[in-house]
């Protein structure tokens, strides 16, 4: 986390140097810093993937919904990242639309999980 924090601070200082004169360079520096931090975070996912596969083996029949849950988490992080980039570029309305599209995508992906939950509740009540 120290590397990420330092990269973020260095990116901010570099972008601030160009903010007044060449603002388009500041935006490019900011986006490059975001992409570097994002790729560093993605590189740390190998341990998480192994744990997820192990948990999936323990779940048995319920493992059908596990990929859907992972899709929802992925959609959340990706839409938050893209919306943040849009806001940093000065396009707040576009960032809001990206977040809205992400929320709608999560809702669409979660329908099978919600349906299974309702079926389980109905089974308990019957």
Helical proportion, percent range:
over 70%
Query: Domains counted in the coordinates: how many?
Result: 2
What form results from the Cα inertia axes?
A: elongated
Instruction: Provide a count of the helices.
Output: 5
Low-confidence parts, pLDDT < 50 over ≥5 residues? Answer: none
Distance between the termini: 51 Å
Structural class: mainly alpha
Tell me the strand percentage band.
Answer: under 5%
* Overall pLDDT score: 84
Quick structural gist:
With 126 residues, the protein is mostly helical.
Polypeptide structure, described:
- Helices cover 87% and strands 0% of the residues.
- The chain contains five helices and no strands.
- α1 (2-19) packs antiparallel against α2.
- The radius of gyration is 20 Å and the shape is elongated.
- The N and C termini lie far apart (51 Å).
Which helices and strands occur, and which strands form pairs?
Layout: H1 2-19, H2 23-43, H3 46-59, H4 66-88, H5 92-125
Tags for this model:
5 helices, mainly alpha, 87% helix, 126 residues, single chain
């Amino acid at each position: 986390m120290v590397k990420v924090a330092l990269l973020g601070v260095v990116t901010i200082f570099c972008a601030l140097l160009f903010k007044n004169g060449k603002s388009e360079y500041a935006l490019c520096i900011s986006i490059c810093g975001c992409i570097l931090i994002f790729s560093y975070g993605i590189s740390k996912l190998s341990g998480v993937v192994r744990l997820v596969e192990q948990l999936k083996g323990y779940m048995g029949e319920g493992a059908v919904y596990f990929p859907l849950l992972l899709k929802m988490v992925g959609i959340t992080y990706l839409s938050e990242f893209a919306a943040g980039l849009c806001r940093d570029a000065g396009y707040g309305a576009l960032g809001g639309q990206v977040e809205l599209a992400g929320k709608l995508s999560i809702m669409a992906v979660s329908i099978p999980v919600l349906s299974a939950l309702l079926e389980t509740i109905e089974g308990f009540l019957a």
